[in-house]
Design goal:
The complex is a heterodimer.
Chain A (H helix, E strand, L loop, with lengths): L1 E4 H28 L20 H7 L17 E8 L8 E11 L15 H12 L14 H14 L3 E5 L2 H12 L5 E5 L4 H10 L2 E5 L4 H14 L11 E6 L11 H10 L3 E5 L14 H5 L8 E5 L9 E5 L1 H10 L1 H4 L6 H15 L6 H23 L11 E5 L5 H11 L2 E2 L1 E3 L10 E5 L6 H18 L12 H10 L15
Parallel strand pairs in A: 3-12, 5-6, 5-7, 7-8, 8-9
Antiparallel strand pairs in A: 2-3, 4-10, 9-10, 11-14, 13-14
Helix pairs in contact in A: 3-12, 4-12, 5-6, 7-8, 12-13, 13-15, 14-15
Chain B lengths: L4 E4 L17 H20 L3 H22 L17 H4 L8 H20 L4 H17 L17
Helix pairs in contact in B: 1-2, 2-4, 2-5, 4-5
Classes of the chains: A alpha/beta, B mainly alpha.
Organism (chain B): Ananas comosus var. bracteatus (red pineapple)
Keywords (chain B): Membrane, Transmembrane, Transmembrane helix
Membrane topology (chain B): Multi-pass membrane protein
């Protein structure tokens, strides 16, 4: 649910219309200018059909310098961003050898393990010397080291499931596992804002895919009832199996999933559940065990739990945790296990050490401190931003907070101005988010100190004023409560197509 | 003056090419664009209001026919080409006919036609052109014309 002023919606639509019109005009002139140039394809078909690359050529390339910035240091609380310049209006970018030290508000470094850590790094270097950077083999051939076996047990224990299996890449974990679990004749019901890896896995599986409205257990129930009653398309036979896929924290919204209600609905209709905890494992919950611990759901109720090691553990790779039978089945059938190189041993050691720190098994309470710090930091940052008048999404306790920008011109404005003031933020536009809901996504880390966050807030406030994204009235600190009440009563419902009526 | 806010949840439409049409403010923006383009035509050409409405109507015909009923596919490659044989109109609302958005888009050319023909006093060459425009646009939006390619025109990818 996003709230935006009506005029912002109108101007955003108009700006996209204008950008589209200019893009089409430029394409038209390019076609006219190239009319007489010979298009000798020598009988081959053109690579891009018609409009397919329009968005990339005419919209994305104009603001290319806001995306894909190379970095020159570990993604700690402060990061070195390499400077780039362009001679042809952002069509091509060239790196310089200078870099600026910026406050890092974009990396998924939730617990601060991304930079050198006093417990993890010496052990990682030791394992690098002992096991070398790559196993040079697939898991089934010669790629399973002691470390891999140890980590699989540790992950299963950490998450609360009987067994687990590891993969070298987080994206691949979803897109290679889902086709193994379900095939033609099955039904996948996935949240409308699920990550691209899940969408790819679902498309690759051959099962029928249906989507339910984001985070709404009532719509999920409606979709389930309709689909179970209708059966498979055309033959109307009953579905072979139904899997419902949700995420723990949605990375573009920062919202937590309504897990207890969704599990209750799935149990009622005997559908399997698949929980993708890429952003929530290690970052939320009292001992870091993710969204199940935070919302009080028994891990035995979720059939398959997936997660990645890139966010909270400072490594790379992903895992699937489920019952012993499912894991054994996956080890025999999943192509990512049978044909892909196994996870790099130092990366495995990094995860083992990180989990030990979180659980407190390294002999200190740094894990508990980090978890408390990230919770404090996220809540502080989010409440300060909301007081300044920004539209910030996400639930309390979630370390991901998107600040809504909406207008396409504000994306490069916000990004470039923040970089000029030495704060590195990540801005996200179409197609990772819906067209009109462009945002700047802030990821808070346990490595951020109070001073870092205050500096970040100052810069964001100044840039927000310049760019004009403070859509809500700011709250002066003393009159906070009364201003809150006034804001609630000034929200008016609009009954144009598709949007909801808000009760006052 | 209280600022008007709207609340919206992202619609569960997987086709990113058409889901932007389900957000609040789209209808108003469309109507405002037509109105402001009439003002611009009036100020640039200095013609009678009726002539300006005719120009807007014909320009609207050309633009909406080209983008809604001629161009096929989507302007990005993320959907791997599953909509490559469908025009924007056919992709709207996932192919469901007679939804609110479709009814609105069918009414707009008719209203423009009425305004244009009224303000030109139903005089000849304008009336013929306006009628042709509204006829083609409304027929293209009939539910029976879903995925129909007359004489195979525009059937290739």
């Amino acid at each position: 649910m996003v709230r935006l002023p009506y005029t912002t919606a109108l101007t955003t639509l108009f700006s996209y219309g204008l950008l589209f019109a200019f893009g089409q005009l430029r394409d038209l002139f390019r076609k006219l200018l190239d009319w007489f140039r010979s298009k000798d394809l020598k009988g081959y078909a053109p690579i891009c059909l018609g409009l397919e690359d329009f968005y990339v050529r005419r919209l994305y390339l104009r603001i290319q310098d806001c995306f894909g910035r190379p970095i020159a240091s570990a993604p700690d609380a402060w990061i070195d961003v390499v400077e780039r310049y362009s001679n042809d209006n952002n069509k091509t970018l060239h790196r310089t050898s200078n870099s600026t030290k910026c406050l890092n508000l974009g990396s998924y470094n939730y617990l601060g393990f991304a930079a050198a850590d006093e417990y993890c790094t010496p052990r990682v270097i030791e394992s690098l010397k002992k096991y070398s950077p790559s196993t040079c083999s697939v898991r089934v051939d010669g790629g399973t080291t002691q470390l891999h076996a140890e980590l699989e047990e540790l992950v299963a224990r950490f998450v609360g499931k009987p067994a687990a299996v590891l993969f070298g890449m987080g994206y691949v974990t979803n897109s290679a596992i889902i086709p193994c679990l379900i095939g033609k004749g099955g039904l996948l019901i996935s949240d409308s804002l699920n990550h691209n890896s899940i969408v790819n896995g679902a498309r690759g599986s051959g099962a029928t895919v249906r989507v339910f409205q984001h985070n709404s257990p009532s719509h999920l129930e409606e979709v389930l009832r309709e689909q179970i009653a209708e059966g498979q398309p055309r033959t109307h036979r009953p579905w072979k199996k139904i899997i419902v896929i949700v995420e723990g924290i949605y990375s573009m919204e920062g919202e937590l999933c309504k897990l207890p209600e969704i599990i209750a609905v799935c149990k009622k209709y005997k559908a399997y559940t698949y929980l993708d905890e890429a952003h929530s494992i290690g970052a939320i919950g009292k001992s870091g065990r993710g969204v199940c611990e935070l919302l009080g759901v028994d891990p035995a109720d979720v059939d398959i739990m997936m997660g990645t090691f890139t966010k909270s553990f400072g490594s790379c790779g992903g895992y699937i945790a489920a019952s012993k039978e499912i894991i054994q089945y996956l080890k025999y059938t999943c192509p990512a296990h049978l044909y892909a190189t196994s996870m790099s041993p130092p990366a495995v050691q990094q995860v083992i050490s990180a989990i030990k720190v979180i659980l407190g098994e390294d002999g200190s309470n740094r894990g508990a401190q980090k978890l408390a710090r990230i919770r404090e930091n996220s809540n502080f940052f989010r409440s300060e931003l909301q007081k300044m008048g920004f539209e910030v999404l996400g639930d309390n306790d979630s370390p991901v907070m998107p600040i809504m920008l909406y207008n396409p011109a504000k994306i490069p404005a916000f990004s470039r101005e923040c970089l000029r003031q030495n704060v590195a933020v990540v801005t996200v536009a179409f197609p990772a988010t819906p067209l009109l809901l462009a945002r700047a996504r802030i990821c808070i880390s346990a490595a951020h100190t109070r001073e870092d966050m205050i500096k970040g807030l100052e810069v964001i406030s100044k840039v927000g004023d310049l760019v004009g994204i403070k859509y809500f009235p700011t709250e002066p600190p003393k009159l906070a409560k009364e201003a809150h009440k006034k804001r609630e009563s000034s929200i008016v419902a609009e009954r144009f197509c598709g949007c909801d009526i808000i009760g006052v | 003056m209280a600022k008007l806010y709207v609340q919206t949840a992202p619609p569960p439409d997987l086709n990113k090419n058409t889901e932007w049409f389900m957000y609040p403010g789209v209808w108003t923006t469309y109507i405002l664009i037509l109105f402001f383009s009439w003002l611009i035509v009036l100020s640039v050409f200095g013609c009678t209001p009726g002539m300006a409405w005719t120009v807007v109507n014909l320009f609207h015909f050309a633009v909406t026919y080209h983008f809604f009923h001629w161009k096929k596919g989507t302007p990005f490659a993320e959907d791997q080409g599953i909509y490559n044989t469908l025009t924007w109109w056919e992709q709207m609302d996932n192919g469901k006919q007679l939804t609110r958005n479709r009814k609105f888009l069918t009414v707009v050319p008719v209203v423009l036609y009425l305004i244009a023909s009224h303000t030109t006093d139903y005089q000849h060459p304008m009336l013929f052109l306006n009628t042709l425009a509204v006829f083609v646009l409304v027929v293209a939006k009939f539910p029976n014309m879903h995925k129909v390619r007359i004489f195979g025109i525009n059937a290739g990818s």
